[in-house]
Amino acid sequence: MNEPRSEEFQFSGDTLLAKVRDLIRAGNVRRVIIKNEDGRVLVDIPLTIGVVGTLLAPQLAAIGAIAALVMKGSIVIEKGPFDGSSP
Q1: C-alpha to C-alpha distance for 11 and 82, rounded to whole angstroms
Q2: pLDDT one digit per residue (tens) for the chain, 87 residues
Q3: Domain coordinates of the chain in residue numbers?
Q4: What global pTM score does this model have?
Q5: Residue 25, CB half-sphere, CA atoms under 13 Å: how many?
Q6: Could you tell me the strand order of the sheet in which 72-79 lies?
Q7: What's the CA dihedral at 46, 51, 54, 60 to 10 degrees?
């Protein structure tokens, strides 16, 4: 009933970092997977609830480096269930 769901978005290299930041700010994101245009997973970043600022900086730096190398691909986000028990 409360299984995670995922969404997939297409990107071009210059929009990757901005798109990932927007998705994380939207909230409830448990995992970010970045694939190249062939569907091969380049990076799989698990996120925990409450990850903010400096804790996320190394992952965003890695995503920025990937954006410089990959022209097109997709971002898969996994959204976790929200049961209302977290503060």
Answers
A1: 27
A2: 566 688 898 988 778 888 888 887 777 788 889 998 899 998 888 876 555 555 667 777 778 787 777 888 998 988 876 444 444
A3: 5-79
A4: 0.72
A5: 7
A6: 5-12, 72-79, 29-36, 41-46
A7: 40
47 in Cβ contact with 29 (< 8 Å)? yes
**Are the C-beta atoms of residues 71 and 10 closer than 8 Å to each other?**
no
4 sits in which H/E element: none
Q: Which pair of structure tokens corresponds to residue 61?
A: 């730096």
Here the tokens at position 17 are: 């970092």
Residue in the structure block whose two tokens are 């209302």: 84
Phi and psi at 3, nearest 5°, equal -75, 150
